[in-house]
Amino acid sequence: MSTEKLWAGRFKKRLDDKANDFNTSLPFDMRMYRQDIEGSIAHAKMLALQGIITVEDGEAIVKGLTGILEDIERGRLSIEGEYEDIHSFVEGKLTERIGDAGKRLHTARSRNDQVALDIRLYLRNECDKIEGLLKDLILTVAELAEKHADTVMCGYTHLQRAQPITFGQHLLAYAFMFLRDLDRLRDCRKRMNISPLGSCALAGTGFPIDRLKVAELLGMDGICENSLDGVSDRDFAAELAFVLSLTMTHLSRFSEEIILWCSWEFKFIELDDSFSTGSSIMPQKKNADIAELVRGKTGRAYGNLIALLTVLKGLPLAYNKDMQEDKEAIFDSVDTVKNALAVFAPMLKTMKVNKENMRKAAAEGFINATDGADYLTAKGIPFRTAYKIMGEIVAYCIENGKTLETLSLAEYRKFSDAFEADVYQAIDLDQCVAKRNSRGGTGRESVNRQIEIVKKALQQ
Ligand code: ARG
Fold this sequence. Notes:
By secondary structure, the chain is mainly alpha-helical. It has 20 helices and 4 strands.
């Protein structure tokens, strides 16, 4: 079966089969069928409004395209055949169905501006879906933080026990990362939602087209002002690939902690059976495969970003076929992030938090030593001196198998006579956490403020 190529007039031989397979983008750009048809409908309406084609031809094209869309969606028309891409498929089917009017659709247009439009429309829609998933995740994290605003855990630096915090505060750190992802996504969408249609092959057209009308019909916020840029700009795809890479970075860091927290060494959480897997040989195993896969798939997102930037870096203006490589990369990033987000929120929602173990870890490791130093500082001892005294006390405790809580007042006073009975209150874990109400701190008031900020941001 040989479908006539769009450029058949100029050529004497048909394309070699292997070259055709190599050249075609239909297997992966078919997912843009809806956007391709919507773009063509807007273009045809504009052509008719401007008197570039007749009203009758315009109507026949719109009707024909609407029928094709319906048939694809109802499974009556499958996207296959020896077409170079989704654009030639749709145009080919249209012409098969409505004859000559179909051949007028491509007036004042090229596949170069057509494909640039289709990707923008497709990705715009994907951005909206990802926005919904991100918001759902942020809300899940905020609600979990609310529930654990008083759950004391050990905070780490260098993965060494550092200072007492709450699990709520820890979770909120991720909520803020995801909020920034949301903000970046929306910002990227702004530059994406601009119409390149009318740039034509590269130089615009002599036909009296109305580019703003097409943009308006498609719900776009403006037009690309330079036709060469219009057909060769894929910044929006690279930007999105970066936004998604950073989102994956955040998901991956969160995953890493989840994996650590459900290890026997930590036992801070237990993932629900429905989000864990077992081992084929070790009966005791319960693995955090979902989190591991999210961490692992982050590599893909980075790879796609580098692939896109590399494809673009050496391209002369304007369109080059290299640009066809944009789609698989950015589609894969979009799919990866959507799939990761779709499992992440329910994984968090269903996990069990082991407050006792969190508390136990917080009670060991002298994580209230800074609070001891702050206590002495409040009593007038310079902080640097207070820090040194507490260091000596910690060393003494380690040597004698004691903790700051079990050290007697007499022992404390051997190091400084500024110590009084109220030192025990100062180093009490709950107190240590409760008093850190500086903006952004781990104290209850501060955590409540953070939850409020996150929830408010979600309403925008
Ligand atoms: N399949 C092509 C792409 O994805 C569409 C544009 C083809 N344009 C051309 N002049 N061959 O980039």
